[in-house]
Amino acid sequence: MGRFRDIDSILRRWAFRPDVVRARMIRARDGRHVLQMRIDLGVLQMEILGRPDGRRPHGYENYLEYLMERAAQSSAPFVLSQRQCQEVDREFLQYHYRRLCWLALGEFRRAIADADHALALLDFASDHAPDAQWLALHEQSRPLVLFHRAQAATFYALEQKSPESAAEEAERGLAQVQTAIALTTDQPGPEETLMLEQLQRLRTWVRESENGQEDRILQQRLAEAIAAEQYELAAQIRDQLRARQTHPHP
């Protein structure tokens, strides 16, 4: 047997928890940053740029780019082969794991990018699926990807101090997930119901945060108007605050 090193010490120091995504970004020996995810049987390590496994399929940035080029060059309608279907699944799963890590680490812009890649893979698969059964099976993944993207886009907008945009992202994401679920099942199951409930709570929370920020702005303007002895303006602002408290924004 060759002289290989085990990862016992890593696993002992970094316990697995089935109820939470455990992820971290570390510096590799060559100085580059890599992403790690703790799973029950060990650790997944992913690149933070390009494809998560660091490979360039057929010289392309990712397998989707390769397939898009093949489809563009094909004189006949392009249909995914069995081997290509397997590679689509492989790439989809890699981006799924990395997206989970970005969400867990609060790297929302990167989570959005990986979600968009997964959605592009699903769109390509939809256009070039080998049969209806394969297509239907893969479309079941779309609601979850949209759910993750809605979360990431909402929190990213909040990071950019744009509560109005965050509210729009939460609303748009909820509608997209509802549509995707309706297209894949007649009756949402427990997982789909939970996704919808979480997005509804996120939408409500963002709206309340947005209203709270508007109240703070009005209160600051009121204090400034009183300090400047602009009492007529102060009275108008006070009336606005009272109206908001009596009839809060839906």
Order of helices and strands: HEEEHHHHHHHH
| Binned strand content | 5-15%
Unreliable segments (pLDDT under 50, ≥5 consecutive)?
A: none
Q: Please describe the biggest sheet, giving its number of strands, its sense, and whether it closes into a barrel.
A: 3 strands, antiparallel
Euclidean distance between termini CA atoms: 68 Å
Sheet with the most strands: spatial strand order: 1-2-3
**Assembly state (oligomeric):** single chain
How many helical stretches?
Answer: 9
Q: Roughly how many Å is the radius of gyration?
A: 24 Å
Number of strands: 3
Shape: globular
Q: For the residues shown, what is the average pLDDT?
A: 88
Helix content: 55-70%
Structural class: mainly alpha
Report what the structure shows:
- The chain is mostly helical.
- It is 66% helix and 8% strand.
- The protein contains nine helices and three strands, in the order H-E-E-E-H-H-H-H-H-H-H-H.
- The protein has helices at 8-13, 63-73, 82-105, 108-128, 132-139, 142-159, 163-184, 190-227, 231-246; strands at 22-27, 33-39, 42-47.
- A three-stranded antiparallel β-sheet has the order 1-2-3, covered by helices on one side.
- Strand 2 and strand 3 (42-47) form a beta hairpin.
- Helix 8 (190-227) runs antiparallel to helix 9.
- The longest helix is centred in the C-terminal third of the chain and has 38 residues, at 190-227.
- The chain is globular and about 80 Å long.
Key terms:
single chain; 250 residues; mainly alpha; three-stranded antiparallel β-sheet; 9 helices; 66% helix; globular
Short overview:
The chain is mainly α and 250 residues long. The chain contains nine helices and three strands; from the N terminus they run H-E-E-E-H-H-H-H-H-H-H-H. It has a three-stranded antiparallel β-sheet with strand order 1-2-3, with helices on one face.
